[in-house]
Design goal:
alpha/beta, binds guanosine-5'-monophosphate
């Protein structure tokens, strides 16, 4: 079983930015590239940001049992491929999974040794402002993501480790400490 660090929390909370900063501080960390059926956004690259696939391809992987976890989110499907975790962890470094809450629950059940961190926004208003401000999604998408975010925020009590992403540098510092303590990578 690879050492895994699950970073979860609502869309727009800044998981991606936090993970980029975390990897600057701990370059040995590997990032699991997820599969999704959503369309690539401008600037996203196949195999780098996601393994973009059709709903049919995704379903074939589900049927073949290829996913460690998978979930429906805001009208698309997302999942972590077992092969992806195996490849990324081959060198022995911890692998970071950036996934939403339903997926994190599945990982908790199947890989209980994985470290799970919930990233929380300072407030729902702050989250809304970020989702609108980043301008990557149409307004209906933002609304769908905010509705889901309210449910996701209610789930944060399930997580032993919660990092509030208010000031980025503080949140990164907390995350570095958690990952150092729990994966002992030095
Ligand atoms: P986005 O469309 O903004 O890239 O991602 C939407 C949500 O799906 C985010 O909360 C993101 O963390 C989550 N996500 C990305 N990859 C996966 C995955 O492999 N599994 C699950 N369960 N969620 C994922």
């Amino acid at each position: 079983m690879p050492r895994a660090v699950v970073i979860t929390g609502p869309s727009g909370v800044g998981k991606g930015t936090l993970i980029r900063s975390l990897r600057t501080r701990m370059p040995e960390l590997q990032l699991s590239v997820s599969a999704t059926t959503r369309r690539p956004r401008t600037g996203e690259t196949q195999g780098v940001d996601y393994h973009f696939m059709t709903p049919e391809e995704f379903e074939q992987h589900v049927a073949a049992g290829d996913f460690v976890e998978h979930a429906d989110y805001a009208g698309a499907r997302y999942g972590t491929l077992r092969s992806e975790l195996a490849t990324r962890s081959a060198g022995g470094a911890p692998v970071v999974l950036e996934i939403e809450v339903q997926g994190a629950r599945q990982v908790r059940a199947t890989m209980p040794e994985a470290v799970q961190v919930f990233i929380a926004p300072p407030s729902l208003d702050a989250l809304r402002a970020r989702l609108v401000g980043r301008g990557t999604d149409a307004i209906e998408q933002v609304e769908a993501r905010l509705r889901t975010a309210e449910q996701e925020l209610a789930a944060q009590d399930e997580f032993a480790r919660v990092v509030v992403n208010d000031r980025l540098e503080d949140a990164v510092e907390e995350l570095v400490e958690i990952v150092r303590d729990t994966t002992a990578t030095g």
